[in-house]
Amino acid sequence: MKQGTIYTSSREETLALATRFAHALHGGEIIFLRGPIGAGKTVFVKGIAAALGLKSSPTSASFSLMKKYHNKKHRLFHIDLFRLSAGEVFNLGFEEMLEDEEAIILAEWPDPIAHMLPSDRLEMDFILRQGDEREIKLSSFGRISDILLEDLCKQAKTSL
User: Fold this and answer.
1) CA Rg, the chain, in Å?
2) What is the CATH number of the domain that holds 98?
């Protein structure tokens, strides 16, 4: 496991970070996004989707649980399990998502499905600071996520 920390001081910086990060995504990545409401998780997802050229802009998936966005080159699953417990996630269509080895999976409030997903994942904990400042703590679990963490920290000019 590797760890790092990135700081952003505005919504625009969080979007820019996501835009740069999106260029490191090729499919098969799983990213867990944690943090309180308003911490920037969905903003980060929006930045990734826009950078990948996906026509629809993700919104909070809290009421639909899972949304799929795609174009000819990319498939992105945005999951938001804010209101669910581990016992409530069965039969919600996650099997299709998991069968797509080329998809990018971004899971907000991921704990109810953590046991269902492969162990190689990048975890991002968004922490609210003063004003619009965010501290984003990163933890990688596996070879693919180690590379993502290193790339994200390098892009943000932050040390591991």
Assistant:
1) 14
2) 3.40.50.300
User: pTM for this one?
Assistant: 0.88
- Does residue 160 form part of some domain? no
Residue for token digits 């998809």? 103
CA distances from 81 to 1, 88, 91, 92 (A): 25, 10, 14, 11
Q: β-strand 121-128 against 104-108: which pairing, if any? A: unpaired
Phi-psi region of 144 (alpha: psi -120 to 50; beta: other; left: phi over 0): alpha
Which range of residues forms the domain containing residue 102? 2-155
pLDDT digits over 39-70, tens only?
999 899 999 999 999 876 666 655 567 788 88
Determine the 3-state secondary structure of 33 from DSSP: strand
- Based on the structure, what is the number of domains in the chain? 1
DSSP 94: H
